[in-house]
Amino acid sequence: MTTPLIAVTGATGQLGGRLAFRLAAAGAAQRLIVRDPARAPELAGASVAVAQGYTDGAGMRSALEGADTLFLVSGRESADRVAEHRSAIDAAVHAGVSRIVYVSFLGAGPKATFTFARDHWATEEYIRSTGLRFTFLRDNLYFAMMPHLVGADGVIRGPAGDGRAAAVAHDDIADVATAVLLDEREHVHDGATYDVTGPEALSMTEFAAHLTRATGRQITYVPETIPEAYASRADYDAPLFEVDGWVTSYTAIAAGDLAAVSPTVRILTNREPESFATWLDLNPQEWAHLRR
C-alpha cells in the first residue's frame, strides 16, 4: 500500500518548518514546496519541489503531482492574496490532490473586523467550491508577533482598548496540524473548522506586563483612537490595505472577536497549549531585540 504523500507549503517558515519536522519524526512521506531548495530542511522521508510562489502555476502543479494532501499555509499579506491562494488551489485540483488543510484565521468571514480575516474567508469559500476534502485551522494571533508590536520607546500602541486576544504558539498550531494530517481514522476531519488558540485571553496591557517580566525592560501599552492609529503609522508609507490590516488587528481585539479560548489544542494533542509566559521563557530569541 502506498503511503499518502503530504505536500507542505511554507516549509522554510515558522509554521511549515515546524510541521515538516513533526511529519518526518512520525515517518510520514512529504514533499516540501519551497522557493529556494538550498533553504529546505533535510528530513527523512521528505522530497523537495520548487515553485516561485503560489502564482507559479506550472511550478505548483509539478510540485503537487502525486500528492494526496496539500497543507496550505496562507500567503503573506498582499493586495492579491486571495488570487494567489486561488492559484495554488487550482494547481492542487489540476494535480489530483484530494484534500486541502488550510491555515485560516479565527472569525474568518466576509464582514470580519480584521480585514485580513476576510481574505481567509474568501479562500475557504473557494476551497469549498472545488469539492475537495478540506479542513480549516483558524488560528488566533501568533505569540511571535507580540514582541514586534513594541516600539523603540518600549510602547505598544494601538486601538485595542481593554479587549483580549487568545493568541497562540506556532508549536501548538503545528501539533494540531500534525494530528489532523496523520489521523488514521479516515475522513474524521473532513469538513471540519477548528479554532486554534492559546489557553487564555490576555489584554494588551497583560501582554506588555509579560514582556516586561521576560526582558527586564519596562514595556507598556498605550491605547490609541482609530484616527491616531492611522496617523501614527503614516510614516511607514505602506499601502492602505496593509495599514488597514494592522489597525483592524487591534480593533478586532477591542471588539472581542479574538477573545474566545478554544479547546482544540487540548482535544487534538492531549495536552494543554503553551501560555504566553511559557512561550517567552522557551523562545528568548524572539524577543532578544527588545533588550537592545
TrEMBL record:
Q: Which residues form the NmrA-like domain?
A: 4-223
Q: Which CDD domains match?
A: TMR_SDR_a
- Identify the stretch annotated as signal peptide in this record: none
Cite the PANTHER family for this sequence: NMRA-LIKE DOMAIN-CONTAINING PROTEIN (PTHR47129:SF1), QUINONE OXIDOREDUCTASE 2 (PTHR47129)
Q: How is this protein named in the record?
A: SDR family oxidoreductase
